[in-house]
């Protein structure tokens, strides 16, 4: 097998332009640039990091350019130097991380000479095998370049500086967010404390009103030399009759309605009542007799 002379991807005319059928491409060995020994420090000196890799990618682009028709070539982003802004650096890595060679690889050993094909079937078989070998060589070179680009990017001080800047910005953002959350928690605590004070005031007012009602009941007993129920507006001749009345269903219902009225007023003011502590203050008897069942009476808590 000899180098193919088919027109197109690996044609005879291209071989002549490259030096005839004995032409061999002197391809760059990009793997040799993996080690830190390929450059001398991170400087712009001729042997420094930036100059070495800037020249390398210029050479790779120059090799590809020879295989592109005149007027169709677009210059890829350059590597730049230590003072390049990060937008240019990002454009460089973005383009070269997806690098695809434009070279034809017609100089590879092992390609069939399609001029020796005996019939169309043999010709297609030769072309298929040649394309397979060339595609594999292109794929390998593309992978080597992309791996080198990723390797360089990890060592590039410009990228490291940008990552550090992004890290600091993120830390500052998180710190600001934490300060904002603390301020919100503090403000909420102050609001809760204020509402608690307001609720306590409302509870004290309610207790005061209940006390006044009970005092009115006591005063009525003393002034009229009898027993009077201000809720039911009834008067009784003896303490025993009064106690029996307090156990009656109607008295219990009116007393419960009075408690609910106070509770509703507090709810409208943003306070929820827990009915327990003031049960003893209202002295609500159990109409069914027996052991008194605890009923919840207003004690203020926040919504």
Keywords:
mainly alpha; 303 residues; single chain; two-stranded antiparallel sheet; disordered N terminus
Describe the structure.
Helix content is 56%, strand content 4%. Strand 1 (227-229) and strand 2 form a beta hairpin. It contains eight helices and four strands, in the order αααααββααβαβ. It is mainly alpha-helical and 303 residues long. The radius of gyration is 47 Å and the shape is elongated. The strands form two sheets. The chain has a two-stranded antiparallel sheet. 14% of the residues are buried.
Helix content: 55-70%
Radius of gyration: 47 Å
Number of helices: 8
How much is the average pLDDT?
A: 78
Going by helix content, strand content and strand pairing, the class is: mainly alpha
Uncertain spans? 1-23, 272-303
Q: Widest sheet: strand order?
A: 1-2
The overall strand count is 4
Please report the distance between the alpha carbons of the first and last residues: 90 Å
Gross morphology: elongated
- Secondary-structure element string: HHHHHEEHHEHE
Largest sheet: 2 strands, antiparallel
Beta-strand proportion: under 5%
Structure summarized in a few sentences:
With 303 residues, the protein is mainly alpha-helical. Helices cover 56% and strands 4% of the residues.
